[in-house]
Specification:
InterPro entries: Thioredoxin-like_fold, Thioredoxin-like_sf, Thioredoxin_domain, Thioredoxin_ResA/DsbE_sf. This protein is of the alpha/beta class. 39% of the residues lie in helices and 21% in strands.
Length: 171
């Protein structure tokens, strides 16, 4: 009986967590999405728009992750390889850790302190994540030099479309 109950609970949880690719690949952010705030490591609130403005004229890869996410941690070596192979690209990390303390612990534990990190203090459900249809982490997005979306949806740093989008933007 215990096994059946466990199976049912896992099935219900799995149905609610889907990594289905969104039907439409968006190329721009909505005004509401750009106004979404995140916190930097020091706890300062910044909007997505302010974060992207810091990288105006550069290609950006946004890496959505969390310290509790096994898939994210397994992807780290390949994500680091992608970063190393693209020195002219800015990598920005958006954390979905469940608390500021968890965010801080994850940065320390996974040697992320030297990277540009932000945390969704509002949690998973917010205007930005709703707009981009965030339904799984890790997730990667490529942003062009004008802050438009060049690669909307990828759940692996090994996705060849990420590198293809970067290469196309570097031309």
């Amino acid at each position: 009986m215990k096994e059946i109950l466990t199976f049912l609970m896992l099935s219900i949880f799995t149905l609610g967590c889907s990594q289905k690719k969104p039907d439409v690949s968006k190329t721009r952010f909505s005004e509401e999405a750009l106004k979404q705030t995140l916190q930097n490591e020091e706890g300062k609130n910044m909007t997505v728009q302010e974060i992207l403005k810091q990288h105006q004229g550069k290609i950006v890869v946004i890496d959505f992750w969390a310290g509790w996410c096994r898939d994210c941690l397994q992807a780290f070596p390949k994500a680091q390889e992608l970063e190393k192979n693209n020195p002219n690209v800015d990598f920005v990390f958006f954390s979905l850790d469940r608390s500021k303390e968890g965010f801080d612990r994850s940065l320390e534990k996974f040697n992320m302190k030297e990277k540009e990190n932000y945390w969704f203090s509002t949690g998973w459900t917010n205007d930005f994540n709703n707009y981009i249809e965030l339904n799984w982490i890790p997730r990667y997005m490529v942003i062009d030099q004008k802050s438009n979306i060049a690669k909307y949806y990828s759940i692996s740093p090994e996705d060849p479309e990420i590198q293809a989008a970067i290469d196309q933007l570097l031309k």
